[in-house]
Amino acid sequence: MDKKEIINAIKQARKETKPRKFSQSFDLIINLRNLDLKKNQNQVDDFVELHYTKGKKIKVCALVGTELEAEAKKVCDKTIRVDEFTKLDKKEIKKIGAEHDYFIAQANIMPKVAASFGRVLGPHGKMPNPKAGCVVSPKANLQPLYDKLQKFVKLTTKKGGSVKSLIGIESMKDEEIADNILVSYQHFIHILPQGDNNVKNVMVKLTMGKPCKIGAQNEAKVEDKKGKTKSTKKVKAIKKEEPVSKEKETVKAEPKKAEVKVSEKEWAPIASTKEETPVSTKEEKVAEGVQK
User: Fold this and answer.
1) CATH number of the domain to which 114 belongs
2) Looking at 91, 121, 149, which one is the last position of a domain?
3) Which of 95, 153, 161, 191 is 20 to 30 A from 35 via CA?
4) Is residue 127 part of a domain?
5) Could you tell me which residues come within 8 angstroms of residue 218 by beta carbon, excluding any fewer than 6 positions away?
6) What is the pLDDT of residues 183-230, one digit of tens each?
7) Stretch 71-97: mean pLDDT, rounded?
8) Does residue 92 form part of some domain?
9) Phi, psi of 47 (to 5 degrees)
């Protein structure tokens, strides 16, 4: 899969989608094969840093102690101090979870974070993840992490045997979206047990549009080439057949001679003339003497 194939699929996705009043998102869909997701070693839950942002602001909520509170308020979109955890009910936590993309937590208060937020954030995959660097020390500098999260994509295998993640928005350039897709794909296949052999196909789609298969045009060209090679082989086979010689053609062309049928009555005088033999002169003389 190269960038040209991806750009063609992005353009096709744009053509097949009607304009909307909002900016639609581009989603990357990777369908898998020959992979038993029931086995833990085959499950993927990883992050990849892109070269470009995904086109929309990624909101980050910080769950911190007093040591990191000032830094978190300066950098993050929302800050919740540890002593405020118990004041939040399930409904409020759900709302906070829906409004934010990532959660940062101070390492020494992680047990309290798990107790208060685990049941709500866990099923949605939004608990502070060490793989993304979201579990930090009490004296951490949060600005680099915040900037990094703006370009992060989470790649997680689902039960249906596919990976789906937001990769950009409609207002972005095709080249930027294509680059984000390529970086994500190359990172993802290196995690799979059999690499790209575990990938059935890759698609891109807009929020309200149909999925467009990446590389579909090349596959069509390959099929056309296969069809052409088959037809040329047939033509060559016909040409290789030995032509019929002229002698054989003339023999075949010559009509059969008609057989002349003769009846017994017509045949009798002809046969008798052939069977008659002339009498010798001596025999004639003897016959004359006897008569006298």
Assistant:
1) 3.40.50.790
2) 149
3) 153
4) yes
5) 5
6) 999 999 999 989 999 999 999 999 999 999 998 765 555 455 555 555
7) 96
8) yes
9) -125, 150
> If phi over 0 gives left and psi between -120 and 50 gives alpha, with beta otherwise, what is residue 125?
left
Residue after which a domain boundary falls, among 119, 149, 179:
149
User: Are residues 22 and 93 both part of a single domain?
Assistant: no
What average pLDDT score do residues 230-243 get? 55
C-alpha closest to that of 179 among 60, 48, 18? 48
Would 251 be classed as within a structural domain? no
- Judge if 108 and 189 occupy the same domain: no
> How much of the chain, in percent, has pLDDT values that exceed 70?
74
Side chain identity, residue 81: R
Answer whether residue 38 is part of any domain.
yes
SS3 204: strand
Identify the band that residue 120 occupies on the pLDDT scale cut at 50, 70 and 90.
very high
Range of the structural domain that residue 103 is part of: 58-149
Q: Is the distance from CB of 156 to CB of 48 less than 8 angstroms? A: no
Grouping H, G, I as helix, E, B as strand and the rest as coil, residue 80 is strand
169 against 281, higher pLDDT: 169
Structural domains in the chain (count): 2
Strand, helix or coil for residue 194: coil
Question: CB neighbours of 44 closer than 8 A, spacing ≥ 6?
Answer: 155, 156, 157, 163, 188, 191, 192
Can you give the CATH number for the domain in which 26 is found?
3.30.190.20
Element (H, E) at 91: helix 90-99
Structure tokens at 228: 């052409």
Q: Which residue has the tokens 């052999």?
A: 197
Which residues have CB under 8 Å from 8's CB, separation 6+?
214, 217
pLDDT tier, 271 (very low <50, low <70, confident <90, very high otherwise): very low
* Predicted pLDDT of residue 188: 94
Same domain? 80 vs 142: yes
Q: What is the pLDDT of residue 239?
A: 55
CB proximity list for 185: less than 8 A, separation 6 or greater: 1, 28, 30, 202
Model-level pTM?
0.70
